[in-house]
From TrEMBL:
Protein name per its UniProtKB record: Nucleoside triphosphate/diphosphate phosphatase
PANTHER family assigned to the protein according to its UniProt record, in alphabetical order: PTHR39159, UPF0374 PROTEIN YGAC (PTHR39159:SF1)
The enzyme's E.C. designation: 3.6.1.15, 3.6.1.6
Positions contributing to Mg(2+) 2 binding: 105, 107, 120, 123
Function according to Swiss-Prot or TrEMBL: Has nucleoside phosphatase activity towards nucleoside triphosphates and nucleoside diphosphates.
């Protein structure tokens, strides 16, 4: 299987459990692309929502996708520090069209001081019932919330000191 090449520009597609498209990020530059991890960078890119709305991101961001984790992270670089938006979702897949994953509604927002807040629990409960998430997926996602919180506390992976800053420096070389 081919993986996105460093320096290439890719789209990121998130889907819902029912297979319908949820959101498309138009442009992300691949900074690392392997079978295990894809790290990308973007800045003020167009995002298309499934309901037809379009919007632009407000700041540079470093995205982290892991093929073994049921979450991905977006480290947003703001004037007052790095904020993370973490999506609970399936491990990524890659095809020639885009990097893809299933978004399972739950999110964690992490603040520059590494405090965090779990978001969208009501949306998760609603979609779990409407889309009939299998019990095994529900169990995996609950464990993944705990794993993600552990990574935040340990400053592991994308939460490690200087992770976002170092990848952002590489991103600037491709702009």
């Amino acid at each position: 299987m081919n993986f996105p090449k460093v320096g290439s520009n890719i789209q990121i597609h998130s889907y819902k459990h029912n297979g319908l498209i949820h959101r498309i990020w138009e442009e992300t530059i691949v900074l690392k692309g392997t079978s295990k991890v894809v790290i990308g960078g973007n800045d003020r890119i167009l995002v298309k929502e499934s309901d037809g709305r379009n919007w632009r991101t407000r700041e540079p961001a470093i995205c982290y996708f892991d093929s073994e984790q049921w979450f991905n992270t977006i480290g947003m670089i703001r004037s007052d520090g790095i904020y993370y938006y973490c999506n609970l979702g399936s491990p990524f897949t890659w095809d020639s069209e885009a990097l893809k994953y299933i978004d399972y509604d739950l999110d964690i927002k992490v603040f520059p001081d590494m405090t965090f807040k779990l978001l969208d629990e009501d949306e998760y409960d609603l979609h779990r019932k409407i889309m009939n998430y299998p019990p095994a997926v529900d169990d995996i996602l609950k464990r993944s919330v705990d794993e993600l919180i552990s990574w935040i506390h340990q400053r592991k992976g994308p939460f490690a000191p200087q992770f976002v800053e170092n990848w952002y420096e590489r991103f600037l070389q491709y702009r």
